[in-house]
Amino acid sequence: MLKPQSTLTRELISLDGLWKFGLVTGDLEEERPWARPLSKPLECPVPASYNDIFVDRSIHDHVGWVCYQRQIIVPRGWSQERERYFVRVEAATHRGRVYVNDTFVVEHIGGYTPFDADITHLVKPGEAFRLSITVNNELTNMTIPPGSVEVLTNGKKKQTYYHDFYNYAGLARSVWLYNVPNKHIVDTTIVTDVQGSTGIIKYTVETSESVSSEQVEISVLDENENVVAEASGAQGEVRIDSANLWQPGAAYLYQFKAQIKSAEEQLVDTYSTATGIRTIGVRGNKFLINNKPFYFTGFGKHEDTAVRGKGHDQAYMVHDFQLVDWTGANSFRTSHYPYAEEVMEFADRHGIVVIDETAAVGLNLAISSGLFGGVVTPTWSPDYCNDQTREVHAQAIRELIARDKNHACVVLWSIANEPSSSEEGAREYFEPLVKLTRELDPSRPICFVNVMFATYDKDLISDLFDVLCLNRYYGWYVNMGDLETAESKLEEELLGWEKKYGKPMIMTEYGADTLAGLHSLHDLPWSEDFQVRFYEMYHRVHDRVESMIGEQVWNFADFQTSIQIFRIDGNKKGIFTRDRKPKAIAHVLRERWTKIKAQWEAA
Predict the structure, then answer these.
(1) Class of 185-275 in CATH
(2) Of 70, 21, 38, 34, which is closest to residue 175 (Cα–Cα)?
(3) Catalytic entry in 83, 90, 357, 418
(4) 418 catalytic, yes or no?
(5) Whole-model pTM?
(6) Given 341, 357, 493, 509, which residue is catalytic?
(7) β-pair type (331-333, 353-357)
(8) What is the pLDDT of residues 126-152, one digit of tens each?
(9) DSSP 47
(10) How far is CA 181 from CA 7, 374, 563, in A?
(11) Which CATH architecture has domain 280-602?
């Protein structure tokens, strides 16, 4: 699943900007908004979630289809005989369809991974066409993440979902028009290793047509654009003497260039992939990067900003990475979905370690009952997470790994967040998904993120995974405000996990809602003072448990959620406010993580 790029053989045109926009209020197939120019349309920016752009409440709360539309001109210089043309949609949350004029081209289900529409047979160079993309935001038990839709007596749809972030929708990432030669590179897979001072790149290049091994040429360039290794053939390995390794906080990237040549040695296609040479692994209760124990510090994050929602924004991306660096953090988790590819590329270039997660969040109907009481509805059942749900989940894993497998920053796959892993049926659901993930990428460890109700004596699936990732809220959702009791309970549980499994453990979520500017002499909950004491308590425990190999606080910044009685304009667990102003805890974390970073670098 190669990201489009401009090369000597390919052209790439951004379709970002203002698109005509309209709601589909009835049946999509009856309204057919793609079959004609939208009448009296609004204009909506791409990339952006549409929910907070407009002042109309009906748009903000809309459940169902919307339509984006614009006119596109195919460059006159493109060749219909020698090339193929594609529209690339980086994300359509959660279901997208592409139409050229009045013709349906492709549908994709899954709101956080890209898809391509081959439009070669429908357009001509030098001519314009009407491009329409319809997007549906409905969540059901046949989507990842799951949810349910209810039709009210007034005919309106009501969406219910089981994750704690707002269901932003639309074209939140870029849209592209691009071309490739008829005979072209379809995919590359790169796995790196190190032997002594020699870097090893094992590769596979997939082409659209069968070509001889002599026609596939490989070269590896260093950061000074010097060729440091060469090979031929669609599969093999190259070795780089005295290789510069990709390190946390000190990234070094090589360019892996694959080319198809004709029998006459003419260039047919070329594609470059940035790759960092490094090793990752698990040994006992340690997580190793380049054979050196690594301690994760950082954040669970969200793609979330005011007005844009989940819309990708380069300025926010750079600023967020600046804040990550300022705190001394070395990592983050893509909670709870794959982030924009630009984010992964930036992490590659700047040495930020990433736990890469699917959008499988909300696979737990017991959470609300556990927090608020009530009847527990089975999660793993024909009516909710069933065999069909698992297949959708499997496809989400396939697409995540296909997109992100070559990123040096990705060191751990997370296949789900807070599923009901202590409930009967969990093992039957997850065993095939674990097997699939290992088959797709044997080179990386895998994890899932464990909910706090599934303690070590109740959880049914943790033995299947390499790293234990735990979300714990002692002192907040349980033992609220009683940090002394919370400290005892937290340590007791962590030692229980350590004794039972002896695996490396990361605290992937821990935090307390905090209203910026609120202070209290008595460290009362919701105050900045309490947030500081809360984290200090957790860190004392982390430092006493040998198998703890990381801490990622929840959350990087305040973020929007659905309307709930205990969510006042969103989740306030951020270390930074939603507009990226630091709370007091940011300075405390900076002091701790900067020391940890210095110790790791000196080791």
Answers:
(1) mainly beta
(2) 70
(3) 418
(4) yes
(5) 0.94
(6) 509
(7) parallel
(8) 999 999 999 999 999 899 999 989 888
(9) S
(10) 11, 59, 49
(11) Alpha-Beta Barrel (3.20)
